[in-house]
Write a structure and sequence with these properties.
With 179 residues, this protein is mostly helical. The chain is built from five helices and no strands.
């Protein structure tokens, strides 16, 4: 029971952190060189196309390598509009996630009622699923504004990233103590 509770709480925290960033943040004023950074067109670290202000762990970020795709100014505006168009949904999900997390925390404090804990865990899982659907919806809307060349580049970059992640996981598994 303890392992399940820890896993559910970790998921709840990740969901809350991601949705909090998506729901409350505004595009940040840029760093060096003005609001868009030196020649970055808003694509610098923490800029509107990164996982910062509107992104987050389980937030609205479309999980596309937008900075590497050389979006036009018009495309950047469209992405911004898509993200802002889903902001209220993100806020509502954040509130649902917080309520589900609070209920789970309450059900696993003191004498644990496994049935109640399982029910609250399922409720939290449902919110996580809703967040995944919303993120997928945002990704599809952003994908639709990319040119075929940008889509091909995004696919290539994502495949390379997944390969690096698999290699990293493999190295971590090899480092685990055997026994």
């Amino acid at each position: 029971m303890r392992a399940m509770t820890k896993t559910l709480m970790a998921g709840a925290m990740a969901l809350t952190l991601g949705l909090a960033g998506a729901a409350t943040a505004q595009p940040a004023p840029g760093g060096p060189g003005g609001p868009e950074g030196p020649g970055r067109h808003g694509r610098g670290p923490g800029g509107p196309m990164m996982g910062g202000p509107l992104g987050g762990l389980l937030g609205l970020h479309p999980e596309l390598p937008l900075p590497a795709l050389n979006l036009t100014d018009a495309q950047e505006e469209q992405v911004r509009a898509i993200m802002q168009g889903h902001r209220d949904e993100g806020r509502a999900l954040m509130q649902k996630a917080q309520a589900a997390m609070d209920a789970l925390r309450t059900s696993t404090t003191g004498t644990v009622d496994e049935g109640a804990a399982a029910q609250q865990g399922q409720a939290l899982g449902a919110v996580i699923a809703e967040a995944a659907v919303l993120r997928s919806k945002v990704r599809n809307e952003v994908w639709a504004i990319l040119t075929p060349e940008q889509q091909a580049e995004a696919t290539k970059i994502n495949a390379e990233r997944q390969a690096r992640q698999a290699q990293f996981r493999q190295r971590m598994e090899q480092r685990k103590p055997k026994g």
